[in-house]
Amino acid sequence: MKYSSPLTILTTLLLLHETLYSTMADQKFIENTCKGTPSPNLCLKILLANPKSQNSDLTDLALIGVAAVEDKGLETIRQIVALKRSRPKLKPTLNYCEKAYHAVVYADVPSSNEALRGGLAKFAEDGMADSAVESQACERSFREHGWVSPMTDSNKVMNDVANVVRAIIRMLL
Amino acid sequence: MASSSPSDLENPHATCSYAPLPGGTGDEPTVSRHPKKSAAIFLVCAFLSLAFVVALIGVDKAELNTNEAAVVLSRGRGVDKGVSEKSFRPLLGAENSYPWSSNMLDWQRTGFHFQPKNNWMNDPNGPVFYKGWYHLFYQYHPDAPVWGKIVWGHAVSKDLVNWRHLPIAMETDQWYDEQGVWTGSATILPDGQLVVLYTGSTNESVQVQNLAYPADPSDPLLINWVKYPGNPVLVPPPGIDEKDFRDPTTAWKTPEGKWRITIGSKVNKTGISLVYDTEDFKSFELLDQVLHAVPGTGMWECVDFYPISKQGENGLDTSIDGPGVKHVVKASMDDDRNDYYSIGTYDALKGKWTPDNPASDVGIGLRYDYGIYYASKTFYDQDKQRRVLWSWIKETDTEASDISKGWASLMGVPRTILLDKKTQTNIIQWPVEEINRLRTNATVFKNLVVEAGSLVPLELPAASQLDIVAEFELDEATVMRLNDVSDADVAYDCAKNGGAATRGALGPFGITVLAHEGLIEHTPVYFYVAKGVDGNLKTFFCADQSRSSSAMDVDKSIYGNVVPVMKGEKLSMRILVDHSIVESFAQGGRTCITSRVYPTKAIYNNAQVFLFNNATAATVTASLSIWQMKSAQI
Question: Most exposed among A16, B119, B247, B326, judged by the fewest C-beta atoms under 10 Å?
Fold first, then answer.
């Protein structure tokens, strides 16, 4: 094959153009989707972090979002376990938070995934809404007991991510 | 023990713990009740509290400390920060939160509402009366108290109140329902045969309709089911997304003698209801026209379509049509999680339905219920000739709590549906009369006069399982005299106006249930009457969860709507209290509100009931009957 033949060059250019165009279209789609969420920058960060987002429809983007909630949830559970050792006085509240994040990771996330795949987006929305509430409840429970929360950042991230994903899911309704 | 007649009650040393409100004394109102030894002491308390608290006509009253009552109802309220559906309002100054104790969680299970022993339930399916038994199937997730791969749970009853749980009726054992045996309906054919159409989510997550029938039609318990080997009988038609095609209805007869069903869907944001005709439930013909469509309403889930009698007091078989009949179209709106209905006219030849009032069309007008109420479905009970409504009532606590307690969701109490003959523009819903058989140990109060800004504790043996029926009358004089009015008051909105603590001249007044003494936790159900500049009254009926619990991880919304009140009618409400569910009905069922309530303190022996009038001007006269409700077999 002559690499420098005009036909080859043309084909290659066309392929590159197609890929570039479709990537740009996908990027636009992701951007537009994120504009409809409470935290567009956070949304972009989550979605673009996953290479699969380039070929995703709305359901796929939502699933990427749910995976981000799961990752953050697992990370936060690890944080709670470590805090129980380093801050034993906070144990009752940390136990409450552990249950909250356990619910996120082991109930809300699988339920939301199943719902998204099956086309019953409302159950996925409920799962993400609950995830946000669990993080708020965890954060508040420190305050209610008179403690300064050691988990404010994590709780805020979970709340924000869950609300972003919830907004994406609402677009499917 | 002392008998329960008023003349014996002279003991001035009240043994009751609540602080009475200052007020004059007058004649005690008559109270009658079924004498009960163990309850006599409560009667003593009741009379003493009433004597303290109730001020009567024209008596020289000590200045009512109206501010005190108002403060009691509003102590510790936080500022309302724009509430999204599931963000809960924090209670400033609330007591320390705690993890939910098993004591608190155990209390939440109901005494007489249908619920499986554990895990997750949602939509009611295929309700039917067959060979002497009421059947209820339901969306069930057996593995966790959260939605998941769904099967058909099953239970039977002789009376819609006491239930016998049966094995799972249908599992996800075919490719065409591998991802879920979703919602469906039953049809009884004229020869007595029973068929079920239900939505299956296939192995590829396509929504299809499947036919199933009893394995043994002579088994009244309908334990085993057969899925038609030729399933699916319906797949999404062209132009309909494969994930927007679900919840087939009960079938009804067409003028040509065929069977007709409708299935909700959407095209872009227009909610629609597709119509199919069939002769054998195996092959179907899609009609060109939809039954009805309403732009902007989104996906229509759990569509229901049924006739109601214009004049009669009975329900109607789904196939009935004719001049004395109107038809209801109902749909569950996916977008806002509420069930809407509209009354209109069905054209059987065209397979089309038109609303009587397009401004009150499906999805934009009336709701069955202004609280938590979704995926509802009716059936015609041919035994008692009534149309009965079932609905899924979800939890409004956190998933973490549901996991701790091991279950999630209830069915609402089944309700009969009739056209409201007085208004003609809405239906009335009322708990099935079999529920009344659970009533026991009545406490009756007649003509209690409740001044503006007062609170009346009602002493009861217990307060977690109650049936309360109450009538209220506003004092005419104040209503007539009131001229400092603006149309702002008639623009009252239960959800947005701050609940029972927000005082108007003529309201709020009502009953607060699951109340802790001192009202640290309580759930008021009330009327708010507003007078417009035209002199007309507008009445609102609300249920206020904003102070229902000290816990900060439960929903604290306020629900409600306007309720039509005809000339000469007293204001009436019925409240079923059953642990973590409160169902409230106004004006015989014109406006209904279902609430989920999760108190931490107002539970077991600490739950109480108060009568209240938080209006600034009007006096209210109230008569109530309160029954203890026995537990059913659920």
Answer: A16
